[in-house]
Write a structure and sequence with these properties.
The chain contains 17 helices and 36 strands. It is α/β, with parallel strands linked by helices. It has a six-stranded mixed beta sheet with strand order 3-2-1-4-8-7, with helices on both faces. Helix 8 crosses helix 10 and helix 13 runs parallel beside helix 16. The two termini are about 40 Å apart. Bound molecules: adenosine monophosphate and magnesium ion (MG). Magnesium ion (MG) binds next to loops.
Length: about 700
């Protein structure tokens, strides 16, 4: 369960922007509601921002939502400052103190004067420095930090000593300075607290037991993720608030916001920056621009014992949505990628009427068995620029645009030419051998749909109709883990109590064949800690994790044990042979498919469950393998109540033979086979010649 429904991040500004065109260094607000990203909001100045925030808070409260709002300025000053000014130890008293004294109008404010007045209250030159105005000197406010002599307060808050690159709150002016933002921001927050009394808490000073929480954030924590260029064409400040709001929302969805909030230090009344010490995790959440799955997405209806394959598949299909981000690629680099947008033809194919053959063109209405040829010719890329008079003909080559006056073409093999005269030796039909403009595709036609995995021929089509680039999904990163103490890498002289890890290269190969990016997360010994650490890494670097082994509920089955304690685990007892059990879980926001250790079962379950699921996660939609009925070349008696997949291949006469043994340890059968025979859930007596459903591996994308 998320702590908040809506996550907002505000990039404050100490200066004044008169607008109206959005620019950087103004106020930008990023919003993520129920995991949905809203376009970043631009605010000309603080007055607009305050009104917007008040209206949004009121609206969210009315909807019964819980709301987390992050601001990128310090909520407090180094220890002792608040008390020295207000006489109270409550850091929020300083907010009200500023609120009573700061004057803020769009074109003018008193922040520098106020800082000077505060300086004057302390011995020597006080803590503030930096004059935002290049011309006017401000009493008691030095232009340079070194001019200060006051040592009453620390230069930095404790948290600022941990946040690399942060600026001290005393500095009011200069590139990167934040002092002005604090003075101009705190009064706004103080007023919001007053306006929504009892419904707003301030982190980390107060317990977060109200619907609205105000927290201090610092967008630089995700600077790396932003710099990786997820904001092409977007103003960087807008991208930052958008990505940070999304990171907070995702952390919340996977239960990580709570411990990160709990880490905030309150002792000194200085405040804390949310996420310091968790930089990597936050950046990872900001980086991947897809969406995360909710924890309960693999829940099965209660009371289900052995789940039929179709029910399991239908449930998977309902719960999975694309989790990967989107990027623009040149169409020539997009083969194998999944379209994230519909493509419409930018121009027609062919763009102009042209000849399908080498021959002679003329107007059908002026046709005569003998016609004079005009001098010159029409060639592809070298059109004939004049009109061809009625009753005359022109030499024309394949692909050449039809000159004006030409609508019909006589094949050169059906003509003879002498003395500048064309003689037709065959009957002629109106329009023959001419291709109309747009006869294949018309400009503006929907050409390829979102969700299409682009094959080379699709790239050819897109290119032919003038599509130069397309929005495509980023590749799905599939992490592969093998578990089991008995596993070992292949090596000579390995003792027979070791099993070579055959599943990992197999599953990585499958992921790759399906167009995803396999990520080798290695072999993990059967201990909870090792597995947890590996899964954590995997969840940060991958979009989905595929494990094999340890998926049942037995003693040595750590995958299953870990996932049931720390991920939202659903044990799927699917009525399938070979297979079962299948462990499906969401761990740190990433879906985990726990396959059986048995290589044959792992392979079949990967084809039946992981392939369509990964396709859905990668933006390509659910896939169903196409099979066809062929006569069996074998006999078999099958029990009712579960679906069976047999390793099979077609014989020369088009019947289906199956592998000699159904033993699920027989990896050789996988290699022998070219497809699977699928036998439905009911009982069956199969004798040679009976029709069975054969699904070639090609239908599984292999
Ligand atoms: P498990 O599902 O962990 O009980 O494993 C079932 C069987 O599959 C055991 O015989 C394991 O040794 C075998 N097995 C598990 N993982 C692999 C693997 N990566 N490669 C080959 N065999 C495996
Ligand atoms: Mg095992």
């Amino acid at each position: 369960m998320s702590l908040f429904d809506t996550h907002i991040v505000v990039d404050w500004s100490g200066g004044n922007d008169v607008g109206p065109r959005p620019k950087k260094d103004a106020i930008w607000i990023g919003v993520e509601r129920n995991g949905q990203t809203e376009p970043p909001v631009y605010m000309r100045n603080r007055a607009y921002a305050e009104d917007w925030l008040a209206a949004r808070i009121a609206d969210e409260l009315e909807r019964g939502h819980r709301l987390c709002i992050g601001f990128d300025f310090a909520f407090g000053y180094p220890r002792g400052f608040a008390e020295a000014l207000t006489g109270k130890s409550d850091p929020l008293a300083l907010w009200d103190w500023f609120e009573a004294r700061v004057e803020d109008a769009p074109k003018q404010n008193n922040r520098a004067e106020l800082a000077g007045q505060i300086n004057a209250m302390f011995e020597g030159i006080g803590p503030f420095w930096g004059n935002p105005s290049p011309k006017l000197d401000v009493p008691d406010l030095p232009r340079k930090g070194l001019a200060r002599t006051c040592s009453t307060f620390a230069e930095r808050r404790v948290v600022e000593t941990r946040a690399k690159g942060s600026f001290p709150v005393w500095q009011l002016a200069g590139a990167g300075a934040v002092g002005s933002q604090v003075i101009m921001g705190l009064p706004v927050l103080a007023r919001l607290r007053q306006r929504f009394t009892g419904r707003v808490s301030v982190w980390p000073f107060e317990p977060l037991d109200t619907p609205v929480a105000l927290v201090e954030v610092w967008p630089s924590l995700i600077a790396g993720a932003v710099a990786e260029g997820q904001y092409e064409g977007e103003i960087k400040d807008a991208a930052q608030v958008r990505l940070l709001a999304r990171a907070l929302s995702r952390l919340d969805q996977v239960g990580r916001l709570e411990p990160i909030l709990a880490d905030g230090r309150t002792e000194s009344g200085e405040g804390w920056i949310l996420g310091v010490g968790f930089e990597e995790e936050i950046a990872a959440m900001a980086r991947d621009s897809g969406t995360r799955l909710p924890n309960d997405c693999f829940a099965l209806p209660p009371g289900v014992d052995w789940t039929p394959v179709d029910v399991a598949l239908a449930s998977l299909k309902d719960s999975l949505t694309p989790v990967v981000g989107v990027e623009k690629l040149a169409i020539s680099n997009a083969s194998g990628r999944v379209l994230a947008e519909d493509l419409t033809a930018a121009r027609s194919n062919p763009p102009g009427a042209n000849s399908a053959i080498d021959g002679y063109g003329f107007a059908f209405d002026g046709f005569a068995p003998e016609m004079p040829l005009v001098p010159g010719r029409a060639a592809p890329g070298d059109p004939y620029r004049a009109a061809v008079p009625k009753g005359q003909a022109i030499r024309i080559l394949t692909g050449a645009l039809l000159p004006e006056g030409v609508d019909t073409i006589l094949m050169q093999e059906e003509a003879s030419v002498s003395d500048g005269l064309l003689r037709a030796q065959a009957k002629v039909k109106r329009g023959q051998n001419a291709r109309a403009a747009g006869e294949d595709v018309k400009a503006g036609d929907l050409t390829l749909r979102a969700g299409t995995r682009l094959r080379p021929q699709d790239v050819a089509l897109a290119t032919a109709v003038g599509v130069a680039e397309a929005a495509v999904f980023k590749p799905l990163r599939v992490g592969v883990i093998s578990t089991g103490d008995e596993l070992a890498p292949p090596a000579p002289d390995t003792s027979p109590d070791r099993t070579f890890d055959a599943n990992r290269p197999m599953l990585m190969g499958l992921a790759e064949a399906w167009g995803h990016v396999p990520v080798d997360l290695g072999h993990v010994e059967d201990t909870r800690d090792a597995l947890r650490a590996r899964m954590r890494d995997g969840a940060l670097s991958c979009d989905v994790i595929l494990t094999s082994g340890g998926a049942s509920a037995g003693d040595a089955d750590h995958v299953s044990a870990l996932l049931s304690e720390e991920g939202a685990l659903t044990h799927w007892r699917v009525a399938i042979k070979p297979g079962r059990p299948l462990a499906l879980a969401v761990f740190d926001g990433v879906p985990v498919f726990g396959l059986p250790g048995n290589p044959v079962a792992a392979f079949v379950c990967a084809l039946i469950f992981a392939r369509p699921a990964f396709s859905a996660l990668s933006g390509g939609g659910w896939t169903e393998p196409v099979g066809f009925d062929v006569p069996a070349a074998f006999s078999k008696s099958k029990k009712r109540g579960r679906r069976e997949y047999l390793r099979a291949r077609l014989t020369a006469d088009g019947t289906s033979e199956v592998f000699a043994s159904e033993g699920s340890g027989r990896i050789s059968g996988l290699s022998w086979a070219e497809g699977l025979v699928e036998l439905g859930d009911d009982a069956r007596e199969i004798t040679p010649g009976d029709l069975v459903r054969y699904i070639p591996f090609g239908s599984f994308g292999l």
